[in-house]
Amino acid sequence: MSGHELTDRGAGTRALILDTALAAFAESGYRGTSVRDIATRCGLTHPALLYHFPTKADLLMAVLRRRDDAEGRAAGFADLRGAALLDHLVATARLNAGRPGVVELYATLSAEATDPGHPAHAYFVDRYANLRASVARAYAEVAHDGGLRPGIDPATAARQLVALMDGLQIQWLLDPSLDMAEAIEAHVGAQLA
Amino acid sequence: MSGHELTDRGAGTRALILDTALAAFAESGYRGTSVRDIATRCGLTHPALLYHFPTKADLLMAVLRRRDDAEGRAAGFADLRGAALLDHLVATARLNAGRPGVVELYATLSAEATDPGHPAHAYFVDRYANLRASVARAYAEVAHDGGLRPGIDPATAARQLVALMDGLQIQWLLDPSLDMAEAIEAHVGAQLA
DNA sequence: GTCTATATCTTGATAGAC
DNA sequence: GTCTATCAAGATATAGAC
């Protein structure tokens, strides 16, 4: 209308930078990737990139937040209950086998961000706490419906499932012939009544 | 005798370098650690360090091989059968909770080494293949003795257990209040007949 | 066996032109 | 919004003295 659609001028460039940065961080981690390298792969110089994202850490956080939005973690996750959420995790693993870049990104970064000095440390602490809580709730709901094998503690099962998914990603990245979803499905299947 | 015991002159320095390098790689990963930093922490200059280990990649591989020897992977592992090997893994997890440096080293490096261009890539591909094979054999022996719950495939169970251990390490590094051994024990316990 | 000194490259970030 | 030019700091590695 009377205004300027100038707000998202350069939105295309921003998106290109974020896509490229995701791929680069995935391949070599945050520490192993240079701002110059990302900029070059975008057809930019590095000052041009730093115009859009003032620091390298800002760029990393933008990549992570963008993926959170795209994945719709808040949306598609909060709505799922009980076994449906567990099924969703298996489906996600199957989906991830088709996008090695995303798997590499999280596998590499979650290990790197273990260091309290890493710019994404707080992000991953929160991420895991939230994920465990969601999965624990799902297990508790399954148990309430009588669908869980006796003797299984929801909180423990949640930690195990999240850990299993992470560990399988590393094995899969080292040897892509392994089927992540199959192993997860077998694990969850063995826990249901 | 008639010779020179000069062979292990400087062996003390080598050992000091390897210990320090392990700690440094554990804290910041391979890519995030500089040779200068390791040398300084040893009270050396970096050319002095590079006299003992010609390149940074050589140093990393020496650290890994030294730990393989110290841990006696070949020795203590090849001798264990069936449930005893699985118990040993639980015991190792309990032990690891007392040496975060080692956990950090392997968690960080195994993710980093996912990149085929990483100097330790081949090492970790082999390491995981061997570990899975040993654990699968242990599950098969347990099954043969009638100790495994029906419907559990040894090879799948091995991949799951190795993955669980890896994933729990990341969660533990992000939140050391979590008990790794407990979660592993619960998992294995649920698989035995 | 360890040093000083240095070569060479790459890094993240800034200044200022266009 | 993107550039050139530049900075200061860090990296790996080598040469050669002691």
TrEMBL record, chains A, B:
Please give the superkingdom of this protein's source.
Bacteria
Q: Where is the HTH tetR-type domain?
A: 11-71
The record's Pfam families line, in alphabetical order, gives: TetR_C_6, TetR_N
Keyword DNA-binding carried by entry: yes
InterPro entries recorded for this chain?
A: BetI_C, Homeodomain-like_sf, HTH-type_TetR-like_transc_reg, HTH_TetR, Tet_transcr_reg_TetR-rel_C_sf
The ranges the UniProt entry gives for DNA binding are: 34-53
Keyword entries, A-Z: DNA-binding, Repressor, Transcription, Transcription regulation
**In its UniProt entry, what is this protein called?**
TetR/AcrR family transcriptional regulator
